[in-house]
């Protein structure tokens, strides 16, 4: 993976799930990864694991719903490594619920993390990438940003927003500044995401999805495929999902 090797890559949501798997995959293939999430203990353990396996990693505890903290993350990366080649906006909540149950606080959490967190990351890296004359912004969306299912309403809305954000970036930034803007949309993944869902009325939906879930490593490999492109080649949109998942 010649274009992954030696890239400086910031990964948000790196303490678990897709973010963690992606960090391991990219570091194994020669990238220097800067890991960001709120859980400093998990970040420290993952950083140590990557280093023990011969990779290069740094971490900074970051709440991506706080703009100043995201700006500090990017400044930290530039101070230590001199540049930011790739930002992977991976942090996100997937909190399914039915409209009848009106989980307003959970809606707000998803809007803050999935949308605002993505926007803050973009705002923080754009000046540096424009200065460099190239860069990659990879937004991790969802198949729920392409089709809406039962209990997905607000979650899907946040992922449709990520599609719009990414497409707008392509039209305004990619053409003018040679910055690749990519959306990777996973289907249902075998992580522990169901444990965060509090609405018991969507239990059947969760069970049906879990029955067809695929390993998170396949998503990490797909993100790696996107990262492993020269500056003049952009993969626009990628969906990676279970063969048996209906959408």
UniProtKB/TrEMBL annotation:
Q: What is this protein called?
A: Short-chain dehydrogenase
User: Which InterPro entries does the entry link to?
Assistant: KR_dom, NAD(P)-bd_dom_sf, Sc_DH/Rdtase_CS, SDR_fam
Spell out the PROSITE patterns in the cross-references.
ADH_SHORT
| Alphabetical UniProt keywords | Oxidoreductase
Span of domain Ketoreductase:
7-185
Protein family membership: Belongs to the short-chain dehydrogenases/reductases (SDR) family.
Q: Which SUPFAM superfamilies match?
A: NAD(P)-binding Rossmann-fold domains
Q: Which GO terms describe its molecular function?
A: oxidoreductase activity, acting on the CH-OH group of donors, NAD or NADP as acceptor
Q: Which SMART domains match?
A: PKS_KR
Top-level taxonomic group: Bacteria
Q: Name one Pfam family in it.
A: adh_short
């Amino acid at each position: 993976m010649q274009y992954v090797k030696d890239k400086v890559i910031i990964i948000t949501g790196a303490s678990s799930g897709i973010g963690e798997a992606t960090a391991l995959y990219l570091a194994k293939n020669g990238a220097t990864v800067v890991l960001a999430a709120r859980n400093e203990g998990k970040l420290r353990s993952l950083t140590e694991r990557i280093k023990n396996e011969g990779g290069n990693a740094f971490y900074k505890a970051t709440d991506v719903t706080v703009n100043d903290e995201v700006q500090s993350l990017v400044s930290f990366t530039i101070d230590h490594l001199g540049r930011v080649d790739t930002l992977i906006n991976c942090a996100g909540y997937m909190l399914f619920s039915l409209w009848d149950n009106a989980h307003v606080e959970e809606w707000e959490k998803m809007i803050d993390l999935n949308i605002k967190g993505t926007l803050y990351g973009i705002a923080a890296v754009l000046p540096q990438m424009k200065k460099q004359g190239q860069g990659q912004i990879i937004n991790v969306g969802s198949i729920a940003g392409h089709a809406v299912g039962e209990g997905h309403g607000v979650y899907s809305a946040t992922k449709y927003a990520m599609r719009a954000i990414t497409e707008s970036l392509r039209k305004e930034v990619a053409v003018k500044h040679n910055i690749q803007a990519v959306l990777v949309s996973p289907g249902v993944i075998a992580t522990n995401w169901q444990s965060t869902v509090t609405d018991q009325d969507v239990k059947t939906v969760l069970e049906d999805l879990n029955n067809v879930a695929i390993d998170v490593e396949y998503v990490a490999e797909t993100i790696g495929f996107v990262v492993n492109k020269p500056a003049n080649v952009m993969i626009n949109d990628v969906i990676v999902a279970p063969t048996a998942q209906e959408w």
